[in-house]
Structures are given as C-alpha cells and as structure tokens.
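[Automated response] Your request has been received and processed.

Submitted sequence:
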Amino acid sequence: MKSYWMQSDGEHAQIELREGEQPSPAADQLLVRVRAAGLNRGEFILGHGLHKAGAAKPIGMEAAGEVVSCGSDIKDFKPGDRVMGRCSGAFAEYALITQREAMKIPDALSWQQAASIPLTALVVFDMLVVHGDLKPGEWVLIPGVTSGVGVTALAMAKALGAKVIGTSGSQAKLDQLKFAGLDLGICTRAPNFYDEVMRATDGKGVNLVINTVGGSVFAECVRTMAFQGRLATVGYVDGVLKAEMDIEALHAKRLKLFGVSNKFRTPEQRAEMLPAFRKQILPLFEKGQALPLIYQVLPFENLIEAKAIMDSNAHLGKIVLEGAQ
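Generated structure:
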C-alpha cells in the first residue's frame, strides 16, 4: 500500500511516499480504508519531539474511513462501518485504529469533516470541558483564532453557549469567522489586546484563554483573565518558549494555568476522555453544531502542497488530504 513517511536528522525533515505491506489488525484494532485524513501543524514541527533524529516514521494522526477488518477482541464495530479516530500513519491507503480511539461517524458528517475531528476536536474538548470547565455565558479568548485549533475551539465554545473573542493578523479571516459566531475579532499579532478584551467584558476579563500562539502573548493573556480564570497553552507557533509570569495575578485572582499535550501520555490516558466526548460532542455534530471548518481538500498525491499551504498560514480552518484512489 501507499503511505507517507517522514525522515528527520533533528534539524530538517524529508517527506516521501513509500510502498509497503498492508497492515493486519491486532486483537484490539480496526483496519480502516482511509477516505480522508486531517493535517496537524504540530506533527511537522521537529521541536515538538514527535520525530527522533535519524529515524523515519509513517505520518498522519487522524483519519476517517471504512472498516475493512476487525481484530478478535472487537465487539462494537464491523466491516463496512464508517469510523474516525486518532491513529498513527493516517496518510496512507490503510490505517489501524484501536477500538478505544474509534468513533462511529455521525450520519450528518462527510468523510472530510470526520477526518478533521478526532485529534483537533479532542484537544479542544480537553481544553474547554475537561480542564477548562467552560460554562454557558462565559467569555473565551482565543489568540490565533484562525488556526485549525482556534476555529475548532470557536465552533465548540459557541455550541456550548460561550462568548468568544479571537485575535488574528488577518482582518479578512476575522470577518469570515463572524458567520461562525465570533463575538469580537481583534486584528493583531502583537500582545496588545488587553484594552479591547476588557471593554468587551465590562472590565471583568475572560474566563478561559486558549493560547494557540505561544510565549509572545502569554503575559498579555494572563492580564486579560477574570477572577478564577483558566488558561490553556496548546501550542507555540511563534517559537517563543519563555514568558514573564505575573505571580501576584496568579495568586490574587486564583488563576488556573495548564498545558494540553499528548506527548508524555500513555494511550490509555489519551483515551480517558473519549466516553465523555462521545456523549457530549458527537450529538452536537449530528445536529449540525460545532462542525469543523474546512479550508481546502487536496488529493492524496498532494501532501507536500497541503503542508506548504499550512506553513504559509494562508488557511482558515482545517486542511484535509483525501484518501488514495
């Protein structure tokens, strides 16, 4: 079968399309014919530590497709089922998804929409619900709201009844997100959004921050937080890994700061929140709520082009690779 691999020397990476054997499912796995797979920026950033220097590995982290065969322990799925899930090697004709990660695709979703959900939406659910404890009527601030994670966080937060402020360097992208429910868009890439955030929240600040940008806006994010506010750090596309910390604000306002990453979690830990996600979020998709915003779908052969589009920051929402024909 065809599959994409990435080779790293620690500083540079090379992506190549290889021919290999079709995998066979273990007892707890599903073999899936991949119909679509979502791109995720973090997978390609060598600094995130997902690729060891000198090693090559199959790439792609979330997929949607049809079940071809099932391992001996599988009870809830059968060949022909439409499924989506996090997995290793999603940029391929076939991929293996463990039973604990697999989710049946709601009838309302296309292959492309389903492929945009497993990784990004679960990360967002972790930030908004599991650790963020978001409640209806609360304010959410999303610096970098036009990223894949940002747009997904906007859609899910609105479906959960929150009000959302987002920042971006593109006014045109912010204008487009008004139709997705963005309450306030602030056109800036600099850490200078405090005044507008406080005006919008009547001087109280935001209840939850989803920091997709990194250290360059961290201190400003903390300034905007309300009493008992929460701040999730999910990325650092700015490459800034250090930031000033206002200890007085942390103490006096009883703030909660947390990071969201799967880097050191076991497969079992990563799957802990899936039952709650299935119960709370999948029904929203069925109703047409919290749907992923897809920027572009490209053919399987065009992964390099898809990555270039993502690297250019020209996109708004998710970029999806179709399954090999």
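Summary generated for your ticket: DSSP finds twelve helices and 16 strands in the chain. Residues 118-130 form the longest helix (13 residues).
If you did not submit this request, please reply to this message.
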